[in-house]
Amino acid sequence: MTMTSGSDNALCGQLLLIDADAACARQTGSTLREALLVAPRVTHSAGGRAAADLLRKTRFDVIIADLDSLGDLSPSSEDAMQRLVRLAQGALILAVAGTGSVSAALGAMRAGAHDYVAKPVSGPVLVGRLAELAQRHGRPRSLGVEAEPNPVVTDFAGFVGASSAMQFLYEQIGRVATSSAPVFITGESGTGKDVCAEALHSKGPRAGNRFVAINCAAIPRDLMESELFGVVRGAFTGAHDDRKGAAELADGGTLFLDEVGEMDLSLQSKLLRFLQTGMISRVGETAARKVDVRVICATNRNPMQMIADRQFREDLFYRLHVLPIHLPPLRQRPSDVMILTRHFLARYAREEHKTFAGITQDAAQHLTAADWPGNVRQLQNLVRRLVVMFDGGEITAAMIEAADIESKVAPAQVPVEAPRADRRSILPMWQQEQRIIEDAIATFGGNISMAAAALEISPSTIYRKRQSWSDMAVAG
């Protein structure tokens, strides 16, 4: 069955709609016909097998797939989605899942779907999500949405940035915040993992209750358990009073465990038990207390590597790694550097009662070209130093060089000329690309959609490259 909207001259792209419910499919087609600026050709398939046959013959720009309708292709919706992704030839894929099927939706995204919407599907939500996907993946013309682009958000819950990576992050935070499931934040030092945790709290239903943060790397190991779960009087020397721990203080709110990978393995087992039961016992106490908290954790290390090195429990990782969020490093979003610079310049100039006229072009090029190993925190410190060191006027490249202490220190730690025998051999470009992509996939525990978002490429690109690497290995 093919439902075509408008005349042939008005068609804009090919859309495959997979839904076993014919009435629901008609409603979706009607919604698209009424809401999109230039309606695409909509082809309806009642099941996964029929859809797979169509994908072998026809190339589609967009696929909207009801996960409950893919059962004839595979009993596992994730496996069925994986099969569709292989046949999709780079199409944008939107999964549709029942309100109680969040795990199925996340599985579909692991398999390569670009996003998902929950049933019942709202017309504006569906069209808006399709528009977001088209804009994010550089294909607005395939849906005729370029005339009404989504507004670019430059300031969101403590974050500053307008790049596509940050737009995706803002959307992800907004969606994840409404859940009570654990969140696992990864990202390099200085990318704003604490800001992300507070944003998830402030945007969610627990915003009216406490947000309690604990840095697992900053507390001595012998005190960590009492800091997390509390202590009763006399439990050890110095315990003069009963004291609540971070988990109990956050009851009804959010508990943020920063640098969770630094937690001692014995305490990790107690944290796992707390996550499984919702019960805690203060140090020196036998009675258990019920605590209701949402747990958010973060690390700047590769969790899969920590597991391999036996520094992090695998069962704890999978208990925490329900809703992963990755914060992109600043070097991967150079378009945000000047937005952040101006933001910090205005902020600190106001605090120091100074006036700056702006930033010269040479200075802007210097800032944008930098690698920023310390990410946003490094840039923030540099701008604050500039404001303190200089009285005002226009920021020049010479002023930046004078204030950029980190860049001056770093070269001294690296030999200018390494012996020829110690130099690393240079890998071919495809092998370097393979290493980058596989590292990103490992960082997200095998979630290809999240890895693709962090790398700012399409999941289908990763599948295509993996296939080419496999073919090369076979040929070799």
From TrEMBL:
Domain Sigma-54 factor interaction: 159-388
Domain Response regulatory: 14-134
Domain of life: Bacteria
GO molecular function: ATP binding; sequence-specific DNA binding
PROSITE patterns for the chain: RESPONSE_REGULATORY, SIGMA54_INTERACT_2, SIGMA54_INTERACT_3, SIGMA54_INTERACT_4
Keywords linked to the UniProt accession: Activator, ATP-binding, DNA-binding, Nucleotide-binding, Phosphoprotein, Transcription, Transcription regulation, Two-component regulatory system
Signal sequence segment: none
GO annotation (BP), single: phosphorelay signal transduction system
Pfam families to which the protein is assigned, alphabetical: AAA_lid_14, HTH_8, Response_reg, Sigma54_activat
4-aspartylphosphate modification, residue list: 66
Name listed for the protein in its UniProt record: Two-component system, repressor protein LuxO
Protein's organism: Devosia lucknowensis
Source taxonomy: Bacteria, Pseudomonadati, Pseudomonadota, Alphaproteobacteria, Hyphomicrobiales
